[in-house]
User: Fold this.
Amino acid sequence: MIDDVIAARDRALQQIDGAGSLDALVALDTALLGKRGAFADFKSSLASLPTVDEKKAAGQALNEATQVVSAALEARREGLTTAERAVQLERERIDLTEYSGKSRRGHAHLVTQAWERLEDVFIGLGFQIAEGPEVETDFYNFEALNMPRSHPARSGFDTMFTDYSPSCREADGSVLLRTHTSPVQIRVMETIEPPIYMVMPGRVFRRDTPDSSHMPVFHQIEGLVIDRDITMAHLAGTIDAFTKAFFGGAFESRLRPNYFPFTEPSAEFDILRPDGTWIELGGCGMVHPNVLRAGGLDPEEWSGFAFGFGIDRMARERHGIDDIREMFSNDIRFIEQF
Ligand code: DAH
Assistant:
């Protein structure tokens, strides 16, 4: 019997060597060492051996053979596990340095970039941001800004009126696409208590034929400060602080007398480029008492300044763009340059 055990052991070791996968090894384990396996049979035949010595010798040989086989199974299992893991790792390998040219990363449009930079600069100066509706009423766009029906300044805005719309119709009638961001001043005054330090960016509309410097839709940013004892000096200081923060310390600003119905006195502000040329940026002034009143504020108690200028013009100025129409063309070859 001892010879049979040794023969069975050697056969088993060969089979274990030949097992090609962990699954095959599990099956082999059962076939060899399981309850009904090859070595269990030997165990039950021990009892039929004639002498104690023979039983002892055969038992010892069986024990040794079982140990050798189970050690071989274990070693083979480790070997196969390592090999299978290596195959899996190779199969799932990701080359992190590999470049896929397929997806391109976009970026914000240059008008959006200028808009966001303007907001950042004003937030840095302590202002908050507000926005108003693009479809406005005659009241907010004109009347409350000290431009009654017959006011000649109205003709300077090439207004686009919309069809009668009951949902936004208010007492006085006309509904229009706002011609400037100034109506948001009134909405802000109506909603929050002074002191107010607010900028209001947005899209505005005028009936203009597109050419290199005009578009029927463009963007403005409005500023409004309402507090006690605000003077023209605060306005000039704010414009200058803004100019330097946005364009850089080498730029200067100046105010030039002008007329707007909603401010008194009014001015236009220009900036001086480092090359010595001036460029006109926008309008500003001390908020007219009638405008304060329209916003529900007492002009005896509150005073303030306002300004408004074109965002697109700022973007043009920064990037040296000749034709404003390019900025609205959505031609990817143009906009991806900025
Ligand atoms: N709303 C004016 C425009 O579109 C710009 C402007 C001028 C805004 C003077 C102001 C201001 O707030 O004070 O032409």
